[in-house]
Amino acid sequence: MSKEKKTKKSKRKHEHQNRQEFSLALKLNSRLTWRLFRLFIFMDILIVVLLASFSLYHVEHEISRWYEKDISRLSLEDGPWETPGGFTFSQGGQTPDGYVIAERWYRIFDASWQSVPRSVVLPEMPNESIFERLYDADYVFYGEDFTISYHLGNDVSLIYMTLAVLLVAEGLLLLGSVHAQNKMIRRSLKPIYEMEQVTRSLKHTASLAELSDLTGRINKIEAKNLNTRLSVDSAQDELKGLSAAINDLLERIEEAYRSQARFVSDASHELRTPISVIQGYANLLDRWGKHDEKTLQESIDAIKNEAAGMKDLVEQLLFLARGDNEAMALHLEQFDLSLLAEEVVKESQMIDEHHHLYFESDGRLFIEADTQLTKQAIRILVDNSIKYTPAGERISVKTMALDGMAAVQVQDNGIGIVPDDLPYIFDRFYRSDESRARKTGGTGLGLAIAKWIIHHQGGYLDVLSRKDFGTRITACLPLLEYEEKNI
């Protein structure tokens, strides 16, 4: 076969592979984009409903206040009376007009105000769109000898502006995600097409060294980096070796999938409890909160606390997700680990007055790492000791040089950990005692985050614990030699 024919054949194969990659990448990208689009639409509808509900609640609340003040005392004989809040009081009852609210919805309003008919009145503007008519709409209450109307223009404008900002942001996110997803999918599919080519070319002869090299390259693909590319010049291998490598790869993919499924299930379980609490207190507010100030304040405090907990959980989940995707950039700099640990101890002493925190150092320990992430890891270890150590007990933090590593050691006299639980304490959402963990708070992700931070900076964590005696966790990071320091 001539060189020109070989070149044409190779070119046709390359074009065929590109068409296959583009077709499959387009299908996958379309599905991912469609899912993201549906999620955005659902979020937009939910936000609009929430804003409209809040506006309705505000109007009903203000009207209830006026009703309690006795509207009959207002002098309406001289004409309508307007308030700075957008309410207009008119003398004389009217027949309900516009879109009258059904009576079955009245029971959600204030008891003293439930019998008054309500409607939403849209102006007759045949040449205007429904959105412009909504801007000039009024929410009207029809009393026996008075009428109250509230102009919805400001509320509609707020909803329009919020929706416009959301749509612009979502549009930009969709455009960005299409490009990013396409690159990610193409990279992920690259090894698969190369493995297909290799399998098709197994009938050709090759040396054992080439075959073993290919098997080793396939073995390097793991669940966390399926986008690893196979650089194969002569894609031949022994069928047995290739099959074993692919089977091993599939096992790792399956394990990664199971791990991801467990992670999603655990995250859903952790979010279910605060959502149920918020829903419960919302029902409590709906039933008694309008008349019972104690119930109202209790519900508000509980909802705020649960929302704060959900915010922390989501932030930690995002941190771990970025870490899993290798999207977490480390800003390396040289600093003294002892000073950083001492700073964490001082901050913890100001926050927690129920434990005796002590700091001890063997001297200056210079490392090269990300200052903020390292501080976060140390704080997690200290906070964990505080949570599981009874009030009045001692917690000590010590820095030292240990086998060529700079070590931060956090030791407490807390409840300790049973031996069976020690191998799993750094797993996500793992708690040795669910009931006790629920009382102490936390998300079950702190130690997993600390492990990620330490491991991705070339260090390791060591744990020594005994139930009812306490726990000692040591975080070790590479220690800079004297000549390496540049401070």
Walkthrough of the structure:
This protein folds into three domains: 1-70 and 78-200, no CATH class; 202-328, Helix Hairpins (Orthogonal Bundle), CATH 1.10.287.130; 330-484, Histidine kinase-like ATPase, C-terminal domain (Heat Shock Protein 90, 2-Layer Sandwich). Helix content is 54%, strand content 15%. It has helices at 3-68, 130-135, 153-200, 208-219, 239-289, 293-324, 337-351, 371-387, 434-440, 446-455, and strands at residues 81-82, 87-91, 99-100, 118-121, 138-142, 146-151, 332-336, 356-361, 366-370, 394-402, 405-412, 460-466, 470-478. Strand 1 and strand 2 form a beta hairpin. Helix 6 (293-324) runs parallel beside helix 10 and helix 7 (337-351) crosses helix 8 (371-387). The N and C termini lie far apart (65 Å).
How would you briefly describe this protein structure?
Helices cover 54% and strands 15% of the residues. It has 487 residues and is of the alpha+beta class.
How many alpha or pi helices?
A: 10
Radius of gyration: 33 Å
Largest sheet descriptor: 6 strands, antiparallel
Low-confidence stretches: 202-208, 223-241
What is the total tally of β strands? Answer: 13
> Structurally, how many domains make up the residues?
3
N- and C-termini, Cα separation: 65 Å
The general outline is: extended
Mean pLDDT: 74
Largest sheet, order of strands side by side? Answer: 1-2-6-5-4-3
Strand content: 5-15%
Helical content band? 40-55%
Structural class: alpha+beta
Strand/helix succession: HEEEEHEEHHHHEHEEHEEHHEE
